[in-house]
Hints:
This protein has 15 helices and 25 strands. The protein is of the alpha+beta class. Strand 7 and strand 8 form a beta hairpin. Bound molecules: zinc ion (ZN).
Amino acid sequence: MRKVFLGVLGMLTLGVANAQEKGIMNNTKSPSVKFKSIDIGDCHWTSGFWADKFKKAEEVMVPYMGEVLTGDVGHALNNFKIVAGLKEGKHKGMKWHDGDFYKWMEASMYIYAQNKDPKILKELDEYIDIIGKAQAPDGYIQTQVQAFTDRERFGNRQYHEMYNAGHLFTAACIHNRITGKTNFLDIAIKQADFLYKTFMPEPKGDLKRFGFNQTQIMGLVELYRTTQDDRYLKLAELFINLRGKSGVEPSSVAGYKFIGDMVQERTPLRKAKTAEGHAVLALYFYAGAADVYAETGEQALIDALDRLWSNVVNKKMYVTGAVGQTHHGVSSHVDMVHEGFINEYMMPNLTAYNETCANICNSMFSYRMLGLHGEAKYADIMELVLFNSALSGISIEGKDYFYANPLRVSHKGYDPGNDTEFDVRQPYIPCFCCPPNLVRTIAKLSGWAYSLTSNGVAVNLFGGNELSTKMLDGSKLKLTQESQYPWQGNVTLTVDKCKRDAFDILVRIPEWAKGTTVKVNGKDAGYKVIPGQYLTMNKKWRKGDVITLDMPMEIKLLEGNPLIEEVRNQAAVKRGPVVYCVESPDLPNNTEVLDVYLPFDSKLTANYKPDFLGGVTTISGALAIRKDKNEAMYNEVSKPTWETKNVQLVPYFSWANRGVSEMSVWLPVLWNK
Length: 673
Ligand SMILES: [Zn+2]
């Protein structure tokens, strides 16, 4: 008996020692997290959609972006070299350019975690060495401020010192977890200690109004998790507490365009009821606050985050998962807003901003909420973003980008006239925040595919992959997932290795997947399958056990809430998690996208095309094209003339890969009552 007891005790101790501490988020010990990260590299895509995208990231996206950023066009590495005294020349690029380089480095680390190519590690070490030489002796680093003598540290919060620092902290923690090295982490710690000295205890005057684009909150929490130094957690919390304390007044550090709701400064976060302001700023802030809650368990914080998440996805989000309805507008409290949220249900298509970063931030916030609550609705939003408004930000080839992601593009006399909304994808955007954000997301996605629960594993994302991990009790678990998702709805999960005791396998049943069936070893195991929830299967699993999931991949027409005036009497086509659009290369010559209507009774069929747009399922059916022209602002109604054509719809993410084109997700419906 005593021997058995000691054996169990030994296993428990071993279990704690084996706890996962190398996840994208190291939240194994975070008291308020239900779904914990698997270690980076424990899951790798083997076949299908995400395997193809990862391969593209490995072979094209990350190397190409590296060439750009370490070369003279991107100039990011040059900036560090100039400040380090290793190169002559002038600093070029935006205030947040350092942060965008750190994001690319992070993407490169995720690739290394999978392929272990020593060349990647060697290059990263060279860059880290240069960054270390650029860092001031007291720990400060922001190359633009350091390079220009007329700029003072914290002279304006738009210098993005906190944003750059946040991405540095995150990238350094990831580097440490993947490589075990501390060279990058040491730089991050030095910078974090500098920030701690500068901002703690609570600063006075204008320092209260930092930061701007607050990735430092997420980064500081991750640094706390890496080092166990709770000063970093306290500092992260301070940046939440400072919001709402400064009034809506311009000052020398806060220009009149960037105050109040625009930067989530009007209302203290714990009292916020609606998502306001710049969408990227807001969602990075909320994501950071979710990380702080994960450690502190403060009820007021999670109550606010629950309200804000719900407000975003139920009243301010596009059908593609995109967020940030406008380039310029006003908040609910009539503060000036840029690139951000406006009124609930006000969802313009043609002028939608939907910055790629904002959409990705929506999935990052949702991933954190998934961890905190363990509910499928959060993973549904992650997936919606990933397959639609995130991937739309990069070309199929992997080298050209979109910054804004509207749901309709027309060249009929409409010119957005701004510097981030483009007609065609761009090989380089001077404001380069989105491309590396997207590439690092694609590169790390296998780390989001599964989570660890108290006595099991949760399947969050579908796609061919292999998981080789340790559960939270230290026992080994191997699973193989086979699927051609999202083009097909069947998923097979095979248990390759597991402990002898019973444990949970949780499988997400997407909210749209009505009629899904789940079998274990070919038989209906009697589980009640509820779309929008995780199905929890507890049993003594054995090697060779097979779970099969069959999600009906019907083509569905979606309509908006009647309060969304911009989509009244229009429908969007969706199949599984993928939203479709009509694009001008698929229309008869000289057809404008604004003339295309969808007959309600049109029979739509899906067709997988392996050699088209990187391999996609298209949807075809008869669409009505209006032939009479209405050029005036308003026209007297007369019976329209129509032409019916069989037209192919393509996944929204794959549009703009065939030259200059027009596109629309929402199509006016012709009812045949
Ligand atoms: Zn961006």
